[in-house]
Amino acid sequence: MRPTLTVIVDPADRWMSRAACIGQAPSYDETAPRWEQRKARDLCLRTCPVLAECRDWARRTKYTGTAAGETLLHGRRRGHPNSAAS
Fold this sequence. Notes:
This protein is an alpha+beta fold. It has helices at 34-47, 51-61, and strands spanning 65-67, 70-73, 76-77. Residues 20-77 form the 4Fe-4S Wbl-type domain.
């Protein structure tokens, strides 16, 4: 089992403690299997109360993986190499 880790570096990102995915980081990693990423996206879109904050954070930090119901790869949507996520 992969370890889970949630680190809030910026005090402005305290919204993370209210995220539906708290403590489930492996599902959101870009190296997670596609079924795990799908499950993560579903959790985001169905139950997360901080979707907008998460989307802003993912785009601002160029997060790689699943965030706010989107799968991002180096700041771009997976499968759309010319479309910027910001």
